[in-house]
Amino acid sequence: MVDALPLRIFLASPGGLEDERAAARACASEHGVRRDGVSNVTYEVIEWDRVRGTARRAQEAINELIAESHFMIVLFKSAWGSEPGSPWGYTSGTEALHGPA
């Protein structure tokens, strides 16, 4: 069987959901173990912390990771997020990405 590149799953969530993020990573890993020998499809869970330091806005680098992913899992806690901008420049927040219609 030819090895295929892994399908990327971008996992997005706020802080405070460490257990839920660990469960999503474990699920992808377990699926790979169960399918070993049956399929060469593997999954790689990517999170925002894979973004390297950049002089540009961090959200732009995160958007690139999302664009390179095949799937996206978004976890929310008690709120949808905050505005990603402020009068003092960009801050952390949830921003809707709009693809082609």
From TrEMBL:
Highest taxon of the lineage: Bacteria
UniProt source species: Jiangella asiatica
Protein name as it appears in the record: DUF4062 domain-containing protein
